[in-house]
Structure formats: C-alpha cells, structure tokens
C-alpha cells in the first residue's frame, strides 16, 4: 500500500498539505505518538499520527520532524487538538525534511484512522498472497513467467526481468539497455543479491546451480530502499523462476531423450538410415547440412550444467544435445551463420563466471548426414586442441584444424583400433612394466620435428637418455624414426588414440 491510497479513502477525509510528489512512498504501518523525540520507537515506513501535544514552541516542530525524517517514516498525519489546524512551523519543517504531511479532520479520532488503515493494509497483504497463488497457477498451466512479471509490475510497481547468465531475457517486457552489464554483475558478484547500476539482482537457484548455468532476476531500484515485504516478494519470485527453469529443462522430455540417443548413435558410427528418423523427430531432417559442437569443462561444472551452458550458447540454433561422460556434444543445422564466432562470443561472455572451471569448445565444419560421425570427431579434436591453450574459455573452429583430422575422422573404428594397437601397444606395455615413458617421449620427439636438443630440453632429460629411449621405441616397433614415412605413421597413431 502506498501513501496516495490514503487520499482514496473517503472515510478518512485526509488531505495532503506537504509532499504531493512523495505520495508513492510505501506505507508499512501506523503509529500514534506525542513524544518530541519518537525516533527510537520507529523503524521506517510508518504513517505517524500526532495531536501536537509535544509542541511547546515553534522550534519543537523542527526537532520532531527531523526525528521522523531520520527514522525513515513514510508520512505524518496531524491535527492540533484545540484549533483543529496545523501550525505554519510544522508545515515548514515537513517541507524542509521532505516528509509528506496530511491534515487529519478534528472530528476523526486517531484510533479510527488507525483502524481503517490497518484494515486496508491487511487486505493488501491478503491480495499479495492471492497474487502468489495466481503466479503458481499460471506456471503450472504453462503460461510462463511473462504474465507473472507483468502482474508484479502492474500491481506492485516492481519492474523486473528474468535473464540467463549470458544476458538473454527470459521474461519481462522491454529489457534494460545493458543486459550484458547485468549478466557480468551477476557472474562476478561476491555475494547475491546485490545492487549494480541502479538494479537489484537476485539469483534464481544459487544453492544448487553454478552461476553460468543459472538464471537471475533483476529489478529496477536498490533493495536498500525496499521494505521487508518487497524483499520477501522478490525472493519468492526468484523461487518461482527456479520452478520455471526446471520446467523448461528438456533432458527428460521426448525430444531430449531423442537428442541423447541421436548423439550416441552418431558416435557409434550408426547408419544414416538409423539417424535420419531421429533427425526427423527433432525437426532437423531437412537441413542443408550440420555442424557439430563439442564442449568440456572443469570439475566444478556437472555434466547437466555443462549441457545447460551449451544449450544457452547455441540458443536459437535449434541444437540437438547429448552428454557422453564428461563431454557435451551438440548438432545444429547449418544455416550459413558463423557458428564458431557465435560460440566464441557467448563463451567469452560467460567466462567471468567460470571460476576455477576451464570451458573448452570445438566446432566442426559443415557435414551431411553421412558425415556426421566425422563432424563430431572433428569437433572433439578441436576441443582437445582448445584444452592445450592457456585461456580459460578457448574455442577452436574447424578452420584451425590440420587437414589430416578430416581424414582420420572418416576412418572406420576397427581400422583405427588395429592401426593404433600395432604401433603403440608395444610401447604402452613396455611403459607399464618399466615406467620408461616411451609414449610421451615419442610424442615430444615428433612435436619437436626430430630435434634431439629441443626434445631433450622439453622432457628435461639428457640427450643420451633421449637417444636410448628412441632406440628402444625403434627396437620394439621395428620402425625407423629417421624415416619420414615412419614418423607420419606414429603421428597418425597418436592422433587416433
């Protein structure tokens, strides 16, 4: 309830004398006092009623009103018991301290005024409870959060929005101009809720969800100026938004399960005749081509949260998503859009909220249904390349990959396995028995293009030790690392691993 509602109560007959531009202040309670120094008994948001018994001189008005302003009252209702009027010094003090002043009719007792206002306040609180129930009913019916935000803005004067961690608006009309600023504030705040740039930010599910996978609610204004009821309502709305976020989680929906099944089928080299029906269910069968995206993160992001992050990064591209161990794979229809650039921008925006996580993403080139396995392998290889980079939010696109990756991605699994086993298994077996580190030595030797000095420095061993290890590799495999052909074979075998 606000002060201006008092003027709409004819049974009170109150008239505003001072503070006509302050009548949108919230009214929390009614207090009657005849103390010259009432501050200790006030907590803010009250309408104070007084008969001016405390006034012995004009200077007392300044003392009394200053105490009210310091306590943060909403307004003052007064009437001199003898004359029924208001002294000029009281009016001047209220104007000075910006305390709205109402004249109370002499014939109306303060107890009657209090009774009417308290009855209206109780009715307003009952309406708030009804609004909460209405919001829950709307969510259950699938109406979403937009009607909820509209209702709160219209009925309670709380203009706000529900946004994702990347700054995308989920609910609320006419979002703020700088949603990116709000998202950064949400991701980087040490504590929530917080106030940033004239907005108050509440997390939706802080206790169980990482911020990069969460939503947040932003309201206009600072919560430092809010009464307790408004704070409670904002927190309740955040809880309602958490329910909506859970309702929209599609992991257990038919589409979500089909997406998971489709990704696993592609990874196991499923036939196009098996893949196409699932693409039809997802609505992507008619796409001109497909792009694969592979993502992995640190331990602080659970697989389900990583899936949410990938879905948010690819929002609007109709992704089909599956989770395989600690990696999330997505397939999106190729539309000509620069998917790598889109992903890079989105990941960079989320980077401030990663904390100790390292979000690494790889993006493939365009492929047809028959080449989906190759596209996924290309994206996974690009993601592994991203893991070798220092930045916590690296994205590698298909244009950064060497051409041999495309060749390896198309090799059947049994051929890949046979090639890898014949070349590398003797070395791995020897390493397990003797802890000789031959596989790592081979990788370093190829990385250094056969330079003995550079490789020894990289491994932190003497050149003679390196020569001994290379000789053991050649003895065990029957290959000669001075020959280009054998180096290429080893290089491909390691990439197949």
Please sum up the structure shown.
Helix content is 47%, strand content 13%. It is built from 17 helices and 15 strands. Helix 1 packs parallel to helix 2.
Radius of gyration: 35 Å
* Continuous helix count: 17
Helix share, percent: 40-55%
Low-confidence stretches: none
**Strand tally:** 15
* Residues in β-strands, percent: 5-15%
3D architecture notes:
With 497 residues, the chain is α/β, with parallel strands linked by helices. Helix content is 47%, strand content 13%. It has 17 helices and 15 strands. A five-stranded mixed sheet has the order 1-5-4-3-2. α11 crosses α12. The model has no long low-confidence stretch (mean pLDDT 86).
Feature tags:
15 strands; alpha/beta; single chain; 497 residues; 17 helices; 47% helix; 5-stranded antiparallel sheet; 5-stranded mixed sheet
Give the topology.
Layout: E1 15-18, E2 29-32, E3 46-50, H1 58-71, E4 75-78, H2 88-97, E5 101-103, H3 110-140, H4 146-156, E6 160-164, E7 169-171, H5 179-188, E8 194-196, E9 199-203, E10 215-220, H6 228-247, H7 254-267, H8 272-282, E11 290-296, H9 303-313, E12 320-324, E13 327-333, H10 339-350, E14 360-363, H11 372-387, E15 395-396, H12 403-409, H13 413-434, H14 438-447, H15 452-459, H16 463-477, H17 484-496
Parallel strand pairs: 2-3, 3-4, 4-5, 14-15
Antiparallel strand pairs: 1-5, 6-7, 6-10, 8-9, 9-10, 11-13, 11-14, 12-13
């Amino acid at each position: 309830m606000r002060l201006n509602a008092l003027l709409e109560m004819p049974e009170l007959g109150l008239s505003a004398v001072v503070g006509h531009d302050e009548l949108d202040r919230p009214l929390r309670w009614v207090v009657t006092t005849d103390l010259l120094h009432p501050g200790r008994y006030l907590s803010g948001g009250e309408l104070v009623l007084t008969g001016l018994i405390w006034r012995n001189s004009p200077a007392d008005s300044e003392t009394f009103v200053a105490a009210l302003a310091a306590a943060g009252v909403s307004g003052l209702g007064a009437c001199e018991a003898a004359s029924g009027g208001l002294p000029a010094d009281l009016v001047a003090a209220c104007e000075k301290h910006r305390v709205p002043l109402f004249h109370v009719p002499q014939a109306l007792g303060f107890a009657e005024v209090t009774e009417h206002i308290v009855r209206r306040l109780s009715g307003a609180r009952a309406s708030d409870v009804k609004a909460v129930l209405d919001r829950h009913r709307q969510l259950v019916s699938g109406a979403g959060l937009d009607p909820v935000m509209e209702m709160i803005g219209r009925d309670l004067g709380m203009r706000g929005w529900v946004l994702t961690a990347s700054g995308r608006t989920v609910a609320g009309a006419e979002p703020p101009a700088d949603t990116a600023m709000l998202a950064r504030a949400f991701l980087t705040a040490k504590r929530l809720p917080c106030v940033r740039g004239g907005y108050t930010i509440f997390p939706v599910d802080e206790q169980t969800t990482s911020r990069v996978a969460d939503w947040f609610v932003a309201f206009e204004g600072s919560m430092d100026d809010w009464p307790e009821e408004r704070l409670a309502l904002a927190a309740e709305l955040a809880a309602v938004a958490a329910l909506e976020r859970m309702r929209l989680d599609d992991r257990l929906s038919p589409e979500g399960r089909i997406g998971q099944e489709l990704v696993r089928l592609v990874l196991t080299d499923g036939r196009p005749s098996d893949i196409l029906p699932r693409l039809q269910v997802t609505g992507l069968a008619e796409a001109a081509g497909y792009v694969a995206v592979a993502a992995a993160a640190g331990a602080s992001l659970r697989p389900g949260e990583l899936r949410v992050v990938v879905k948010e990064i690819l929002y609007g591209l109709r992704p089909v998503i599956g989770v395989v161990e600690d990696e999330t794979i997505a397939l999106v229809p190729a539309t000509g859009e620069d998917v790598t650039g889109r992903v890079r921008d989105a990941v960079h925006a989320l980077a401030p909220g990663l904390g100790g996580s390292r979000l690494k993403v790889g993006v493939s080139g365009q492929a047809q249904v028959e080449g989906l396995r190759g596209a996924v392998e290309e994206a996974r290889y690009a993601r592994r390349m991203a893991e070798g980079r220092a930045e916590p939010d690296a994205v590698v696109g298909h244009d950064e990959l060497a051409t041999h990756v495309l060749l390896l991605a198309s090799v059947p699994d049994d051929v890949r396995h046979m090639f890898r086993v014949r070349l590398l298994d003797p070395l791995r077996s020897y390493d397990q028995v003797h802890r000789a580190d031959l596989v790592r030595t081979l990788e370093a030797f190829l990385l250094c293009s056969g330079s003995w000095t550079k490789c020894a420095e990289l491994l932190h061993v003497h050149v003679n030790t390196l020569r001994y290890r290379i000789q053991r590799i050649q003895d065990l495999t029957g290959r000669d690392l001075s020959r280009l052909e054998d180096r290429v074979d080893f290089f491909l075998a390691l990439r197949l691993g």
